[in-house]
Known about the structure:
Blueprint: H1 9-16, E1 26-32, E2 36-37, E3 43-44, E4 52-60, E5 72-76, E6 81-83, E7 90-94, E8 100-102
Antiparallel strand pairs: 1-4, 1-7, 2-3, 4-5, 5-8, 6-7
Amino acid sequence: MHGDDTLSRFERAERGSHGxxxxxxxxxxxxxxxxxxxxxxxxxxASAESSCQSGVVVxxxxxxxxxxxxxxxxxxxxxxxxxxxxxxxxxxxDRGELIARITD
Length: 104
């Protein structure tokens, strides 16, 4: 596990700026409900029947590899825990539940 002294000021600001600092292998996401199409042509449906949901990574725990703040990801609908630390809906999900990173 990394101590705060090994993190840049930017990483510490990103992790703590939402009132929630994920621990270990957890990722804090901001869900995206709108149907979107990436520049690569991948369509992410907003339909309730869809088994996946997309979100933007807001903060990550110390043990998270492969994704970071600002990355757009896919995860199973209903995965993790729903939170609203500042009135904005967020999801706290274990890194192992993430399905894919969306790249444009």
